[in-house]
Automatic annotation (TrEMBL):
Signal peptide: none annotated. This is YifB family Mg chelatase-like AAA ATPase. NCBIfam families: YifB family Mg chelatase-like AAA ATPase. Pfam families: ChlI, Mg_chelatase, Mg_chelatase_C. PANTHER family: COMPETENCE PROTEIN COMM, MAGNESIUM-CHELATASE SUBUNIT CHLI. Residues 407-503 form the Mg chelatase-related protein C-terminal domain. The lineage of its organism: Bacteria, Bacillati, Bacillota, Clostridia, Lachnospirales. Keywords: ATP-binding, Nucleotide-binding. The keyword Transmembrane does not apply. InterPro entries: CHLI-like, MCM_dom, Mg_chelat-rel, Mg_chelat-rel_C, Mg_chelatse_chII-like_cat_dom, P-loop_NTPase, Ribosomal_Su5_D2-typ_SF, Ribsml_uS5_D2-typ_fold_subgr. The keyword Transmembrane helix does not apply. Residues 195-400 form the Magnesium chelatase ChlI-like catalytic domain.
Length: 511
């Protein structure tokens, strides 16, 4: 007897529907799996057969064949256990084949019949909604995550007996387990233990942080050890605009595929802050594996990717950031295909100006000119060209440290940032962007109108500073953000001069 049920395989960020077919026929007793299954998927035959026996269900002593369609995609992971069990039960006559029509199943089964959660459930449920399935059946541990998808009935099962029961009578689940409201963003979801009020002094650096967040620009902090570079970077998410529900769902989908969601509160309500160690490999940054998973640049999507001690990262790990910084996506090519991951992150990096950290203060710096040049040379000019702002973080005086904090709290700064973002949202409502930092060359010409005085200053700077075309565009983007912060339609000379001041770092250090 033949039976079939729908499941899905995760390929990068894409979900590929997989039809799990089972056939029970006469012949020598065997359990065969075909259709390009991986070693993990092949192990499902032993898990399913043992789980059925331990729950009092005996398969007939016949030939059992399970096929995965399409056969040209390798099936990975333990998420095929439930669909294999359901297909075999239907093919054996225990379940009627019509019960499996229009149902998507995924989950891992243990030897005693318990069903365990698996990563990537949210992406599978979204795909099931696109395919207009009747409902999804997932592990109970993934139920809160699956219910984030609107207009898609979801059933959570704890063990094999519940699987059989709810497949026969799906309405029983909704009677006994009424739909719980999906987790919502709370007013204090963005609140953390850190605040800009904790930072003494550093008014110039705080201003640069506000500009960077308002336009989603990349920023570099340069200064001696202990001046507060890492403190500033850690507080960037506290002044970023709150996530919309669509953005939260997009991030939750990424973290679901990566297997990093919390079981208690799966919906991600805070912007990501990723701070990989400087020993992180290029594969960890971009996403590795034969079938790549999300790397740090993808896990930082819609948030901050902070590189502390930037020159200590390997050259390969840094250079891999160049393409996603420009395109906001990263494409990884493997023998099995090309995989595209979102990478719309805001880069925040911190570094010392030399190995000892005190250059250009020659009274304290112990480095030779060659050592300083070698240290700074670890960061290439093409990568520097993609950084919009650089701010120097100077040592804090005793009076500033000993006195009470005089700065603004993150709440106040974030209110200004959200006002600036609203201006950008209204301006770009017909474009596929949200921030000035995402402007393309054509859009810069359309939206970055500069006064005559500003143009003259920009022309002088272009010649004297020997700016590249990319640097020129990034100066205009930053100037556009500064003008938005001051609610100006046109970019004036003061906005251009301030944007240029954040590009002078390469002439001071990288000479």
């Amino acid at each position: 007897m033949f039976a079939s049920v729908l499941s899905a395989s995760i390929l990068g960020m894409e979900v590929c529907p997989i039809q799990v077919e089972a056939d029970v026929s006469d012949g020598l007793p065997s359990f065969t799996m075909v259709g390009y299954p991986s070693a993990q998927v092949k192990e499902a035959q032993d898990r399913v057969r043992t789980a059925l026996r331990n729950n009092g269900i005996s398969l007939p002593p016949k030939r059992v064949t399970v096929n995965f369609v399409p056969a040209d995609i390798k099936k990975e992971g333990a998420g095929f256990d439930i669909p294999v069990a359901a297909a075999v039960l239907s093919a054996a006559g225990i379940l009627h084949p019509s019960l499996l029509e229009g149902v998507m199943l995924a989950g891992e089964i243990s030897l005693n019949g318990e069903i365990y959660p698996v990563p990537g459930i949210l992406a599978r449920v979204i795909k099931a909604r696109e395919l207009k399935c009747r409902y999804c059946m997932v592990p109970y541990g993934n139920l809160q995550e699956a219910r984030l998808v609107k207009d898609m009935p979801v059933i959570g099962v704890k063990d094999l007996k519940e699987l059989i029961r709810y497949l026969k009578n799906p309405e029983d689940f909704h009677k006994e387990n009424p739909d719980r409201p999906s987790p919502k963003e709370t007013e204090n979801a963005w609140k953390t233990r850190v605040d800009f009020l904790d930072i003494h002094g550093q008014e110039g650096a705080k201003r640069a942080c506000e500009i960077a967040v308002s336009g989603f620009h990349n920023i570099l902090f340069i200064g001696p050890p202990g001046a507060g570079k890492t403190m500033l970077a850690k507080r960037l998410p506290t002044i970023m605009p709150q996530l919309t529900f669509e953005e939260s769902l997009e991030l939750t989908r990424i973290y679901s595929i990566a297997g990093l969601l919390s079981a208690d509160s799966p919906l991600i309500c805070q912007r990501p802050y990723r701070s990989p160690h400087h020993t992180s490999s290029a594969q960890a940054m971009a996403g590795g594996g034969r079938i790549p998973g999300p790397g740090e640049v993808t896990l930082a999507h819609r948030g901050v990717l902070f590189l502390d001690e930037m020159p200590e990262f390997s050259r390969r790990s840094l250079e891999i950031l160049r393409q996603p910084m420009e395109d906001k996506v990263i494409q990884l090519s493997r023998a099995s295909g090309t995989f595209t991951f979102p990478a719309g992150f805001m880069l925040a990096a911190a570094m010392n100006p030399c190995p000892c950290g005190f250059f250009p203060d020659m009274n304290r710096c112990r480095c030779t000119p060659g050592e300083v040049s070698h240290y700074l040379g670890k960061i290439s000019n093409p990568l520097l060209d993609r950084i919009d702002l650089c701010t120097e973080v100077s040592p804090v005086s005793f009076q500033q440290m000993n006195g009470a904090p005089e700065g603004e709290p993150s709440d106040t700064i974030r209110e200004r940032v959200e006002r600036t973002r609203q201006i950008q949202l209204e301006r770009y409502q017909k474009e596929n962007i949200c921030f000035n930092g995402e402007l393309s060359g054509r859009q810069i010409q359309k939206y970055c109108g500069v006064t005559e005085e500003g143009n003259r200053l920009l022309e002088q700077a272009f010649r004297k500073m020997e700016l590249s075309g990319r640097a020129y565009h990034r100066i205009l983007k930053v100037a556009r953000t500064i003008a938005d912060m001051e609610q100006e339609d046109k970019i004036h000379v003061s906005h251009i001069s301030q944007a240029l001041s954040y590009r002078a770092f390469d002439k001071k250090y990288w000479v």
